[in-house]
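job 3f2a | input accepted
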Amino acid sequence: MEIPLISSGNNVWQRSQPHRINRRKATSTVAFVFILALLATPLKRAYSDSSYNSSIYSFGTTMPTDGAVPKGSLTYVSATGFLFGRTTTVTSTVHHQHGRGVVFHFNPSNVASTYSVDHVFMGHPDGENPRHDAMTLLNGLLYGTTLEGGTHNNGLIFSIDQTGHNYTPLTSLHNAIGDSPHSCFVVVNNNILYGMTAAGGDNDEGVIFSFDPSTSNYQPLYSFTCNAAGVGMGGEPHGRLTLDPNGTTLYGMTRKGGHDGPWRRVQRGYQRQ
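job 3f2a | predicted structure (273 res):
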């Protein structure tokens, strides 16, 4: 079960009703996690700043090493009651500690005593710079991606268990098969993960891929194509694929191509020729 949270700049909020958030340029290196009070407020009433409770955790509190600059969402694991997240860099009092992001978790009912840094990314061979999406829970493990790092410095796919232990790099990506994934996965048939990369593949415009966690089999399914003028079938996808209610078609978007960035659709079982 995943609960995506709204992210803006260095702040993350959870909301109970539709709400418009003003974008503000982050001016502090300290990130905060907020919980929105569950208010019995009519939808037509605009929320004020007082709708948000005080911060429950400030990154940089846990030393000698803590995360900093989160750029994604949190994943809720009902089996443990933990919220998991990632940051893109670290704060540290350790000399020459050059971590490139962390995986962390906490229990929202008692953040101060449960917040824990589970893994510090170091680049090679374990990945670096995870961003933009919540990790995907499947069969007791959380699966995620990093934008960079790994064997070829093109990102990787990793897993970590739902208690925050046993971080494991699973597949290092490289240009020929797709690289620089910005998001995580959608689960199909309860056992296969589908995702996209923003670069690499046949045309260096990204790919749609499948990943079988039971065998670590990574399979590029479709290579995006887009020429220098931005014309083609799309390129540089940054988001997560969405599976239709019938479980037969995956939908997604690209940043380049078409007139204004086309929708792409791929039938399950499609194989690259």
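job 3f2a | Residues 1-48, 268-273 have pLDDT under 50 and may be disordered.
job 3f2a | closed
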